[in-house]
Every structure is written in C-alpha cells, then in structure tokens.
Amino acid sequence: MSLHPSAIVAPGAVIPESCTVGPYCTIGPDVVLGQECNLISHVVVDGHTRLGARNIIYPFASVGVAPQDLKYNGEPTQTEIGDDNTIRECVTISRGTSKGGGLTRIGSHNLLMAYVHIGHDSHVGSHCILANAATLAGHVTIEDYASVGAFSPVHQFCTVGQYSFIGGGTIVTQDVMPYSLTSSRRENKAFGMNKVGLTRRGFTPERLNTLQKAFRLLLNSRLNTTQALAKLGELEGDDAKVLADFIERSQRGVIK
C-alpha cells in the first residue's frame, strides 16, 4: 500500500494494498476501500462507508460524514459508493439517517465536480454528471445517465429522471422528466428532449423520433396531462412507457 506518513488511518479500516492514500488523509475505523482507490490528499472518509474499486478522490473531499440533520443522533448509518467514480475537490457526501432509510448510495462511473454536495439518504445512479456546486438536499434520487448543471440545488424528495439534463443555476423543486432538457430563465421549464445527450449515448433515430413525439404531446399540445399520458400509451417502444410511468408515479409533480 502507498500510505503517506502524514495520513491517519484508524484501526479497523480495511484498505487493500493496491490503494494509494496521500498526505493528510483521515480514514475512520468503519471504512472499507475497494481495490486501486486513490485518495490524493486531505481527504476525509468516515462513518460506515464502503467504496468499490478504482475510485479517485481529490483534495478536501469529505465522504461518509455525519448528515446535516438536527434529528441525527450518531446512529451507525451507511454510505455506499460503487466503482470508477471521480470525486473532485471539496465534495461532501453525507451518510444516511435512521428515519430516511439509513443509506446514502452512489453508483458507478459518476463524475462529481468540485463543491458538489450529496445530502443524507440520497441515491445517485450510474454514469451521472453533477457539475460544480450542484447540491442535493436529503432524500433526492438521481437516475442513471442524468446530468445536473452547475449551481443547481435539488429539493428534498425530488427525482431526476434518467438521461435528463438540468441547465446550470436551475432551482429544482419538482421531479425532472426522463430524457428531458430542463432549465431556468425566469421560471423552470422543460424545453423538450435532451437530444444532444441522447445522441451521444447512442440512441437510434427511431428512439429519438418516438421521444420527440412524446414531448410534443406533453409540452406543445393542448392536451392536459391525463390526455397526453393516454396518447403516450399509443407510441411504440419502451421509452415512451418509461416517461409515462415516471409522470404517473411522481409525488411532487413534474416540471413541464
């Protein structure tokens, strides 16, 4: 193991020999690191925290720290992080709370840019990008392949759908539809599907065409939401069904 002499590793921590722990890092007694993790310097990993393989954590990040919740009384809640994540400078990831499920979970292949905050009991999928200073309040769900723009706060209990893109500076107080491009000018609006992002992710022209029809029904027709959902059921392919199911199960309403 490459362990810098200034690093502090508590007895009980599990660190494979393939890991690198840089200067002034602090690792708590209930931390388990996967193979080939790299903590560059000044990183704090605390609590009952388990990381997968090949994660890289940049200086001054804090992972698995106590939640910013006045109801938290030191319960042994958890943080789980998958493989191949990049966690940049000054990112903060809070562990779960006993009343919120007890777990903060992050998937694999995510990029968390500088100053991102992931609040307690939040669940982030895989292949997501959270840009600089994106902020997730407690109990937020970010589905796979979603992107949250810089300086965008997401309200408690909101869900950001798969393959969606949130523009920088957007205050998210309702659920964000899958595949959508959502941004804020004077008020939050969905501007249609995230065509550039979906194309980069390999969506075929047929899938894009179906989603284009779906968003026209939702955003540009004179149909109300119930009528538009009925029409979505007539479209071919799974993507329209994913979109309709997301809207139907939303508890906070969706941004349209």
Q: Could you characterize the architecture of this molecule?
A:
The protein is of the alpha/beta class and 256 residues long. It has helices spanning 195-200, 205-220, 225-232, 238-249, and strands spanning 2-3, 8-9, 20-21, 26-27, 31-32, 38-39, 44-45, 48-51, 56-57, 62-65, 78-81, 86-87, 92-94, 103-106, 111-112, 117-118, 123-124, 129-130, 135-136, 141-142, 147-148, 153-154, 159-160, 165-166, 180-184, 188-193. It folds into two domains: 2-142, Hexapeptide repeat proteins (UDP N-Acetylglucosamine Acyltransferase, domain 1, 3 Solenoid), CATH 2.160.10.10; 198-249, Up-down Bundle (Udp N-acetylglucosamine O-acyltransferase, Domain 2). The strands form three sheets. An eleven-stranded mixed sheet has the order 1-3-6-9-12-15-18-21-24-25-26. It has an eight-stranded parallel sheet with strand order 2-4-7-10-13-16-19-22, with no helix packed on it. The chain has a seven-stranded parallel sheet with strand order 5-8-11-14-17-20-23, with no helix packed on it. A hairpin with a 3-residue loop joins strand 25 (180-184) and strand 26 (188-193). The chain starts with a strand and ends in a 7-residue tail after the last helix. The mean pLDDT is 95.
Termini separation comes to: 51 Å
Q: In the CATH classification, which architecture of the largest domain applies?
A: 3 Solenoid
Q: What is the number of helical segments per DSSP (H or I, 4+ residues)?
A: 4
Judged by helices, strands and strand pairing, the structural class is alpha/beta
| Major β-sheet annotation | 11 strands, mixed
Integer count of domains: 2
Q: Runs with pLDDT <50, length 5+?
A: none
CATH topology grouping of the largest domain: UDP N-Acetylglucosamine Acyltransferase, domain 1
Could you give me the name of the CATH homologous superfamily of the largest domain?
Hexapeptide repeat proteins
What would CATH call the class of the largest domain? Mainly Beta
What would the principal axes of the Cα set say about the shape? elongated
**Could you tell me the mean pLDDT?**
95
Q: What is the radius of gyration computed over CA atoms, rounded to a whole number of angstroms?
A: 20 Å
- Give the amount of beta strand, in percent: 25-35%
Number of strands: 26
Helix and strand element order? EEEEEEEEEEEEEEEEEEEEEEEEEEHHHH
Estimated helix fraction? 10-25%
Major beta sheet, strand line-up: 1-3-6-9-12-15-18-21-24-25-26
